[in-house]
Each structure stands twice: as structure tokens, then as C-alpha cells.
Write a structure and sequence with these properties.
Radius of gyration: 20 Å
Strand content: 5-15%
CATH superfamily of the largest domain: Phosphoenolpyruvate-binding domains
CATH topology of the largest domain: TIM Barrel
Order of helices and strands: HEHEHHEHEHEHHEHEEHH
Oligomer: single chain
Number of strands: 8
Largest sheet: 8 strands, parallel, barrel
Strand order of the largest sheet: 1-2-3-4-5-6-7-8
Structural class: alpha/beta
CATH class of the largest domain: Alpha Beta
Number of domains: 2
Amino acid sequence: MSAIKKDYKRITTKSLIEMKSNGEKISMLTAYDYTMAKIVDTAGIDVILVGDSASNVMAGHETTLPITLDQMIYHASSVVRAVERALVVVDLPFGSYQSDSKEALRSSIRIMKESGGHAVKLEGGKEIKESIKKILNAGIPVMGHLGLTPQSIYKFGTYTVRAKEEQEAEKLIEDAILLEKLGCFAIVIEKVPANLAEKVAKSISIPVIGIGAGGGVDGQVLVIHDMLGMNNEFSPRFLRRYMNLYEGMTKAISQYVEDVKSEDFPNEKEQY
């Protein structure tokens, strides 16, 4: 049976739940600045994630941990100014919600008020339920994140596939059901076995968006710099590169350098 595709002028949290109900897959990409967000939104993406992955791809950090709430608000506000259709979800950065539910609420309110974002995303399940409840009680939509949770990298010690063992797989399913019960509108599941991710997607009525979680979920998300081939160092199995911008941009810049040095640029038509 083919999916029912509805033409949405503006994507909302309700739109995503409708998409799952209609069997239409949800497309999601990251963006961190106005120019990129404008392109991504115009291309028809459903959800833009202002991810704490900005810590890696924009600032060059090894992990997502160093990025601050102020920096996330800066990136998110830049994205929001560009977007006309997509739902903009903003990551709560490490340290802004884990230990104190009141702090989680303050952080979320700052993101919504100062950036204009449409929702926030938090990593974790049962252990952060009080933070999720407080944020939702304030009327702020929450997207969950289970499986590999990069903010806990030093706890895991590796970026390897999560929930391969039965106990962790059972906890992931329980956490997904809990997140739906609490009121989350969607969940990202990262780097878990495809059959487990599909089982989770079928167990709950809210959308499950996968990254490295197979095709049996309700949508997919990738980091924009990865799928456009802007870096050539990150090559996990789940990544499909749709372009090789690293090579193309390097070639173009090298040509510019050569043209400047040889005085080929600017020519007579390129000056006043």
C-alpha cells in the first residue's frame, strides 16, 4: 500500500504524527546557519535539527560536550530566520538539563524565547523524565533521543552500535514507551540494530526517526555536512554521501588561488 502524501505548507508536531499515521516517511537534516537552512528548507525537508553536532562540524571539537546553551541559541536563531516550512528542533546541550529539572525548563524557555525554535530535543529516557515533564508542562514540544546518545560518550567509551544485548534493548523499548506516555511528539533513535528500531517504531504511535537504525522506522536524519560530503574523515556504514563537496570546493578554491596569483582574476569584465 502506497503512503498518503499530504502537501503541508508548514510542518508542525501534529504534521509528523499524521505522516506516521499515513505511512509517509519523515525527512530530517541538520543545519546550523542561515544560508544552509535556507537551502535545506527550500529543498523541502520536513524537520531541521539544530544539533549539538555543531560542536563537531562548526567548531571542530572532538565531542558534542563543549557547546554551550548560548552557542546553541545563536545557531538556532540563525536557522529560524531562514525557515518558512520546516519544523525546527533544537538540541539542549550537555549540562543544560540532565541534573536539574528546573534548569532544564529554564534552558528550554531560553531556546524558545531567544531563538524562535519550535521544539527541543533531549537525550535519555527514564533518567530524565522529570526534566521532560517540566518542559512539556510549560507547553514546549519535546523530541526524545535514545540509543547512542553522544552526550554520554565518556560513559559509553565508544560510538559503537547500542542495544545489541537483550537487557539494553529491553530498556530502550521501555524508554520509548515512557517518552510517548510523557508526551514527546517524536523520538530519534541512533545507531541500534535495525530490527530493534523497527520494533520500537511499531510499539508506539509517535514517529521514530532513525540515524543508523535501518529503514523500518518512520523517518531518517543525517548531519548535513556528512551527506553533502563536506568532510572526508567520517564514513560510518549508515552514511550515504549525496555529493562530494569537499573535493569540489577544494578544487574551486585552488583554482581561485591560481587565478589571483596569475592575475587572471579579475578580468576587464569583472571590474568597474
